[in-house]
Every structure is written in structure tokens, then in C-alpha cells.
Amino acid sequence: xxxxxxxxxxxxxxxxxxxxxxxxxxxxxxxxxxxxxxxxxxxxxxxxxxxxxxxxxxxxxxxxxxxxxxxxxxxxxxxxxxxxxxxxxxxxxxxxxxxxxxxxxxxxxxxxxxxxxxxxxxxxxxxxxxxxxxxxxxxxxxxxxxxxxxxxxxxxxxxxxxxxxxxxxxxxxxxxxxxxxxxxxxxxxxxxxxxxxxxxxxxxxxxxxxxxxxxxxxxxxxxxxxxxxxxxxxxxxxxxxxxxxxxxxxxxxxxxxxxxxxxxxxxxxxxxxxxxxxxxxxxxxxxxxxxxxxxxxxxxxxxxxxxxxxxxxxxxxxxxxxxxxxxxxxxxxxxxxxxxxxxxxxxxxxxxxxxxxxxxxxxxxxxxxxxxxxxxxxxxxxxxxxxxxxx
Length: 391
Fold this sequence. Notes:
38% of the residues lie in helices and 13% in strands. The chain has helices at residues 27-37, 66-71, 85-96, 107-113, 117-123, 148-154, 157-161, 175-198, 208-217, 236-239, 260-269, 274-278, 284-289, 291-301, 307-316, 334-338, 380-386, and strands at 18-21, 41-46, 75-79, 100-103, 128-133, 202-207, 246-247, 252-255, 321-323, 342-347, 351-356.
């Protein structure tokens, strides 16, 4: 049988690495897309119904929704029904030839299918086997289901981000899924470095709750850092409501004078030099102790000029500043336009699409979008042929 036509590959830093991707939705696919962007051959294994995220977001073609398109470029798709013994045999062959297997199923579920770590290890002792769990498998919640909302609520993220609001709110962003996906990618690449040195594969678990609790507490440990302290958790500079967008004469800006130099320059530029002494700007400890008062002074000053005026003033003073951009504004963001952040291309089934390019820069192994997000099972034939099978 004539081999299916292959699309170009990327000679990125992971060129030559093969990943069997059993993940779905957002958490796993954001990790495996990084592998694919970095040049790995990522084989996305989907059941007959496909990844459920295919139907989410804006869509022009069935099964090719915007979220799926954003998370699955540079991969190949094969359809395998893992309730079917013939298809299980194909997955076993793929695992035997892979460097990495990644999944975000519950551990009991994948073990029931016959692809838990101990089984996979027998097929391929050098395999890096990575699972994203909801809760660490040595804890009492190990078998509970977990989604982004549940982890946001459980890890302290909702609590800290809802301070001062009438009711708790989730972030309008799949912050837990995406953050844990990035940790997952880092963990796999670290395990590959270890395998390169030792020749040994290993089991890697990335638990969502523990990962997000660690992420949230990075700057918010405060009194929790000291067992005998009565001081609460939370970085006061952030949680007391000082850092926020500031109103201007015609809109809003993000602005953050941060250092002594910034505050001196800012107050001098707006004819408020007396506040430099009033707020002890030269003394960092004293300045931090009165930071809410300083932010209140800032909030009283910014309505005096337009957004464009403030961007000009603060840019001249080298103070971090930006207008507030909506999502729909981003294609016209002058910096993002200049660096070619968005790329447009013709997808064979969807038509013209706009995508975010790989953002990491490698001088020796440059990245690119070299393969469109695949239709369900689009690459089944070529993958089977690579295994010496015909359909």
C-alpha cells in the first residue's frame, strides 16, 4: 500500500521523540502541544467519538472547534476503540515504540483498560509515563473526579481572587487546567533528561490540587511560613486591593510604579513631589507599609489625563504601563503584530484560520506551525503503515 503523504516535520529540540497522547480537553493537550511545537512526533489517540473538546468554542466545521484548533496543532490523530482488543493491540505497539506516554484519565480507569504504568513498563522499560491526576494518589481524594472549577475552588485560588467581592467567583480562564498542563510538560522533559543520562524510564504524576496549591501559595504563604505565627496567609500588597486597573479621563490603564525611582519620577512629573517625603518613598520598608495609601494617591491622580497621555508620560519615565486590551483587541496589539504573534493559514477542512504561533524562541532549533490540527483519525492510515499494518 502506498504510504500516506506526510506533512513537513519540525527539527525542534524534541525532534526524534515520539509521544503517545491519550489526553483530552485542555490540561493534557496544552502539554502535548508544547511537545509537538518543540518537534516531537505526537500521536493523539482518540476514541471513535473523538476528544470532547472538539465541539467546544466557535466552530465552522463539525468536530473542529476553536479550542481544539488552539490546542492540537502539530499533532497526528489516530482513532482507536480501546474497548476493542484489536485496537488495544495497536496501542500496545505504539507504546512499545514511544518515548513518552501521557494521559489525564483517572488511574483506575486506565488500569481497567489495561494500560496502567506497570503494564506499559513491561511493554517499554524506557518509557516516560506521565499522568495528570486530580489529586495525588497517596491521599484520600485520589479517586475523586476533578475539573478546573473544582481545583480552582479547592486550592485557594477562588478564595484569594474573590476577596472583597459579594460572592466567590471562578476565574474566567481555565487557569488550573493550563497551569497544570505546563507543569506536566516540564515534568516530562525533566524525565527525558534523566532517561538520556541513565537510560531509565519512569512514572511521573502531576496532581492538579497539589500543583495549583503550590502555584497559589508561591507569594501568599506569609504567616503560613512560620508554624508559630498568628499572621494569616496572603501577600498583603496584592490582596488588600491596591493593585488594580486605574481609571483615566477616557478609560483605564494598567500602570505600576514599583521602585523608588519609579515613584519619585511619577510624583515629580505630576507636580506631587511633596508625596515623596509624605510616603517615605526612599525607605522601602516604610513605603511598603503605606503602599495602600500610595495606591490610593495614584488612583486619585490618573483620572486627570487620558489613557494615551498616561501611556506617553509613563513610557517616557520608564514606568511599566499599558492600556487595557480586550481579547478582541489582541490581533491589533502593536507589539504582538510586530512579532508576528498571530499566524493565518488555510486548514484543509476548516478554511482560513488564525492561530497563535509557538512563542518560545530557540536559536538552533527554531519552532513553527508545521502541521494543522488533525481531523478525527486523519493520520490513522499512515500511523498503521508505520507499524507495518495495512487497512
